[in-house]
Design a protein that fits this description.
Shape: elongated
Strand content: under 5%
Distance between the termini: 43 Å
Radius of gyration: 17 Å
Helix content: over 70%
CATH topology: Ferritin
Number of domains: 1
CATH class: Mainly Alpha
Number of helices: 6
Number of strands: 0
Order of helices and strands: HHHHHH
CATH superfamily: Ferritin, core subunit, four-helix bundle
Length: about 160
């Protein structure tokens, strides 16, 4: 983003970059957690759960990419190593059940991750409303994805 694009952001750009970097880290953790879980899940419903988690992992990677682009547009930097990712993240890594065939336990971990992401994007929306339209629109789009995924996971759990 050019100088004028940064100038129209009507709040501390460093604050927004910090929030975006945390969301970026969250998406990378979600990507890793979903993909890893897709590979270790076992049991009768494993193929369906694995397929869903693989698709969600790709979605989270797309989110991370979009957030990374916005961070760079605002003049920020991306984490230089994987070790920074958990430190920056708002959301914690999965707590999976010990039994890899405990699909309900796995889905509950997925649901917790989706709900954490919803909170992160809701906070980003509040912070950028009428102050940074580009970041606000990005947060709206990512929030919509996470809300859809939360509902899908709740339906699978029968909630």
């Amino acid at each position: 983003m050019g100088r004028r694009g940064r100038e129209i952001v009507d709040l501390d750009v460093k604050t927004i970059i910090k929030m975006l970097r945390a969301a970026y880290a969250d998406e990378w953790l979600a990507h890793y957690n979903f993909l890893h879980t897709a590979q270790v899940v076992t049991g009768i419903n494993a193929p369906q759960v694995s397929s869903m988690l693989t698709a969600r992992a790709q979605e989270e990677l797309t989110h991370a990419t979009r957030l990374g682009e916005r961070i760079l547009e605002l003049g920020g930097t991306l984490p230089s190593s994987w070790a920074e990712i958990p430190e920056l993240a708002n959301c914690h890594p999965f707590v999976l059940p010990r039994n890899p065939s405990d699909v309900k336990g796995i889905l509950k971990a997925v649901l917790a991750a989706e709900r954490c992401a919803i909170g992160v994007y809701q906070n980003l929306l509040k912070a950028t409303l009428h102050k940074d339209s580009v970041t606000h629109e990005l947060a709206e789009e990512l929030l919509a994805d996470e809300v859809k995924d939360e509902e899908h996971t709740e339906n699978l759990l029968g909630e």
